[in-house]
Amino acid sequence: MSSRPTIKEVSKIAGVSFKTVSRVLNNEKHVSEETRRRVEEVVARLNFRPSHAARTLAGRRSFQVALLYDNPSPYYVYHVQTGAQQRCSELGYRLLLQPVDSQSPDLVSNVMALIDEAHLDGVILSPPVTEIPALLDELDRRGLPYVRIAPGARKEAGMAATIDDVAAAREVTEHLIGLGHRAIGFIRGLDSHVSTWERLQGYREALAAHGIAFDEDLVVAGENSFTSGGEAARKLLERRPRPTAIFAGNDDMAAGVLAAAHESDIDVPGQLSIAGFDDSDLAKAVWPPLTTMRQPVRELAYAAADLMLSPETGQQVTLEHKLMVRATTGPAPR
């Protein structure tokens, strides 16, 4: 046997044709479970790794997909990348990581050039790239498979992995209301993210359900970044009376709120409760640890890659969110 095992050697030991081995490696249907198991055992025993070039030449697929992202949160991007990468690796695909400028007038042409140059089999879109009609239209026109993570627009169209942002934001706000807070500030994220408006909607729905009037002055725009969260918090904390709680649309902004509170010697949570959204690594790194809504970002990206590469999975998947109550929220001050 050669130092590097071949697909023919795998097929000989497994007692199947090399085409059957190829079907198993490509996760294709019409292979019995017993045959699939036998081939996978031989592949593992020989530590067989199929040649990417040979697989490409053997068919029309390149076994490459790209993840397109444009997000100021490094924590979000990291977890999206690792989740998608894990599933692609499991299924024998190479994942290309491609940052893009979602505001660029050349976005669509740049993405199409990437698709043509890399001969991509599909693309995974993360927000806010998920919300660009011209890009979706061109992908549809070309018939190229794509899956969206947390889409806002055209929710029912195509493949998507998401959570219920409205319900999740409502739950965070209701947590604060349950602690006795009535003056609750809200820092919204980038306008280009549909989730920004869905989280604002959830916040408003919770207020209305508890008979609390919506105050536009308690809503401040942020940019999903630590710096913008601090700037927005300072605006809210200058109000008299100032809010007793602030809900930020992501953890980066919530961390900025916490820093602004520390700068002003405002006790958290004694004088001010703070909540975020995502449950990123940052939420557990700040002090006090941040109460936040867990959005399973890594799992969403994993599910998105699975939807694209495992057709039997289906078209849409909605994952569960979970409120993570930590030390930045407490009873409203009397």
CATH topology of the largest domain: Rossmann fold
CATH class of the largest domain: Alpha Beta
Helix-strand topology string = HHHHEHEHEHEEHEHEHEHEHEHEE
What class would the helix/strand composition place it in? alpha/beta
Q: Whole-number average pLDDT?
A: 90
Provide the domain count: 3
Helical region count? 13
What does this molecule look like?
Keywords: DNA-binding, Transcription, Transcription regulation. GO terms for molecular function: DNA-binding transcription factor activity; transcription cis-regulatory region binding. Helix content is 45%, strand content 16%. The chain contains 13 helices and twelve strands. The protein has helices spanning 7-14, 18-25, 33-46, 52-58, 74-90, 107-118, 133-142, 165-178, 194-209, 226-237, 251-263, 281-285, 297-309; strands spanning 64-69, 94-99, 122-125, 146-149, 159-162, 184-188, 219-221, 245-248, 273-278, 291-294, 316-318, 322-324. The strands form two sheets. It has a six-stranded parallel beta sheet, covered by helices on one side. Strands 7-6-8-9-10-12 form a six-stranded mixed beta sheet, with helices on both faces.
Question: What's this, in brief?
Answer:
It contains 13 helices and 12 strands. The chain has 334 residues and is of the alpha/beta class.
List keywords for this structure.
Peripla_BP_I, 13 helices, alpha/beta, elongated, DNA-binding, six-stranded mixed β-sheet, Rossmann fold, transcription cis-regulatory region binding, 434 Repressor (Amino-terminal Domain), six-stranded parallel β-sheet, 334 residues
